Amino acid sequence: MAFLKLYRQKLQENYTFLNTIFRERGIQWGVVTKLLCGNTIFIKEVINLGVRELHDSRISNLKKIKKLDPNIQTVYIKPPSKRNIEKIVQYADVSFNTEIYTIQMLSEEAKRQNKVHKIIIMIEMGDLREGVLGEELLHFYEQVFSFPNIEIRGIGTNLNCLSGVMPTQDKLIQLSLYKQLIEAKFNVKIPWVSGGTSVAIPLMLKNARPMAVNHFRIGEALFFAKDLFTGETIEGMHNDVFKLYAEVIEITEKPDNPIGELGENVAGNTYEITDETDLGATSLRAILDIGLLDMQPQYLEPDNPNITIVDASSDMMVIDITKSEKNYKVGDLVSFKLQYMGALYLLNSDYIEKIVQ
Hints:
Number of helices: 10
Number of domains: 2
């Protein structure tokens, strides 16, 4: 049975690295846990790091977090839907918002629950996902004042998540100017300017972040240490907090090319044979006990550089071990580093065992 392993010490060292650089710059931050898909084993590991603020986009996950530690500040990181208002007020201390109608419902529900619900007003800054348009921000902000049991915790933006717009220094300066504009217009203080996700960490390390941006929401950098500007690993961090282990269930020398009339496979792909195809070529192939139900091969990287992934069906994956210096046997484990999406698929699968080391 394939399993996913989290390396506790590497996670701790990544957290310490990030916490140190944020603390030195006077930045508040929370950990985004949506990658963990509500897995309580791994959520506990994150809480044990000393984290006091967790962000998620699933209410069921926030409910689990509150059950594990009611004192952790929970943040719902997308605009709430109407049918979930009651649960959001119950399990999220803070939510991201872009609609007056939604904030009015949150206000009414917070009053019923005798709570003050905090909101972040998200601003559209070019990535074309959620956000109030800049020219409408002052009017929007003014309307929120009329709602009881609502506290405006800050403003924020989301970049790079839909259209790939990067959080450049200019973009974050623009966000900072919105803060100044609101504070001057309404004579208020905005505690959070939440413009930072993992993709903005390189700006911070270069001291290119505007000082007004004082809140970060970090997931990918904590678990994968990836510099999203360059694609490289952030120096001083670990990129293998998670690893996948799959078991070899067959090893056989087989032709490289299928034999027979060809149609679409289970993924809707058709194998192509061209004039350049070597019809007599063979390779030593191993089958692993994991498939498309659990993962997508393009997001996996074999630890053994002499292994290549051939393809996968619903429950099995084929790898080419012809050039491997290791003499694999049936029953051996093959390990893989993961990209973010690779871990997301695996964590969302009930068929993959989750282990902490």
